[in-house]
Amino acid sequence: MPDLRAFITELEEEGELLRIREKVDTRFEAATIMGLLDNGPAVLMEKVKDNKTPIVAGICGTRDRICRAIGVLREELHARLLYAINNPVYPKIESEGPVKEIIDSPRLSDIPVLTHFQKDGGPYITSAIVAARGLDAKMENVSIHRLQVLDDTHLAIRIVPRHLYKLFQIHKEAGKPLEVAISVGLHPAIMLAAASSAPFGVSEYGVANTLLGGSLMLTTCEDVSLPVPRDAELVLEGRIHPDQDVEEGPFVDATGTYDIVRRQPVVEVTRMMHRDQFIYQALLPGWSEHHLLMGLPREAQIWESVRGAVPYVRGINLTPGGCSWLHAIISLEKQSEGDGKSALIAAFAGHKSLKHAIVVDSDIDPYNLEEVEWAIATRFQADDDLMLIAGARGSSLDPSGDQELELTTKMGIDATRKLSKSKEAFSKATFSEEYERRAKEILERVGSGSSD
Ligand code: MN
């Protein structure tokens, strides 16, 4: 069963889940605990102040946890994700499901939504996927959006100009409200699929179903004509009216800095369904889980794009220091002199928010930042190997860029060795195999302390 509960059980069995039995506060305290556990285990906060619903967080908090959930090795993740994006299979829809155990009128204050940081505009739902359809009710989109709780029945929704934005614009022009089905408490594959950039018109439910080997099941909603994952913990149904907007924010985004406050649309929530004794899933914005969910699908896209420009790509790393969003390291096998620059152009084309990209040869591990710096130090000349593109489309999240017009300067660093010069000139000296073996034997004897 591809649900959150089964995955929580699996994490607990593997020693990857921390249970907190002390009462925690949804204002700042829970988020602070999540921050201190960053890159560590997932956490289940069993008792919540003034609320009877437990909170789970950090479910997709490490690269290895996401790989475990999907059942792939680290190096297979990008290929598996691309396969799912290119081969979506729409899941079956059933009339009943666990998420329909309790069907109620909405009271958002019943949900333990977290307020994360001191200057936040309010409590925010950060782990929700939002499903919506086109005017013909055929085209469907599922994407992750932050939702600011305004009162018991209203949420401000941040809609970045991508697929949901397009659907909302189409409805707006027709003067019609956009129906949305918001699901929380999901298996990581569903989160990752919703974070992926499948082409417009492809339902991310289909991508998730392929990622899960065909085991995803959906169920119908009560108030809106949209399906939701049958095994979700919580579903909110509602409408975005074309003529209503509010100031959304302040909110900490992927860069770990405050995003600017903008006027954004409002979801009027009309129905709430949940499992009996549901678990609320939280996600700390600006920290690892946020980075990974945003970054992993982009790594896959960059990989596909660069693979079209050069024959062999060893790996792509959207680095944590670059918020898993703004900085890419691409390791590849260079065959002609221009391959490094072609790869940089392809990387920028593959991920529009990418700001700085570094290309290294395939002997450099893209996940080892010290090796990457060594390559820059020994294989890069700025007058020849540096590429600057001013006034390009960038991320709205980068406070150093033009956040209104979303403009930035892109920088590409080609730290691949020159093919005209001998390879040896750029190779790190190594020890001979024979001496390395003998040296290891000597060290083993010292380490073991044996006298013979
Ligand atoms: Mn989409």
Keywords:
452 residues, Pnp Oxidase, Chain A, UbiD C-terminal domain-like, five-stranded mixed beta sheet, 12 helices, 23 strands, 28% helix, 29% strand, globular
Structure summarized in a few sentences:
With 452 residues, the protein is of the alpha+beta class. It contains twelve helices and 23 strands.
**Model regions low in confidence, pLDDT < 50 over at least 5 residues:** none
Q: What's the number of domains?
A: 2
Q: Helical proportion?
A: 25-40%
Instruction: Give the CA-CA distance, first to last residue.
Output: 57 Å
Counting helices, strands and paired strands, the structural category is alpha+beta
Strand content: 25-35%
State the assembly state of the protein chains.
single chain
CATH topology (level 3) name of the largest domain: Pnp Oxidase, Chain A
- Radius of gyration over C-alpha positions, nearest whole angstrom: 24 Å
Mean pLDDT across the residues is 96
CATH architecture descriptor text of the largest domain: Roll
Number of helices: 12
State the CATH class of the largest domain: Mainly Beta
The bound ligands are: manganese (II) ion
Strand runs, count: 23
CATH superfamily of the largest domain: Electron Transport, Fmn-binding Protein, Chain A
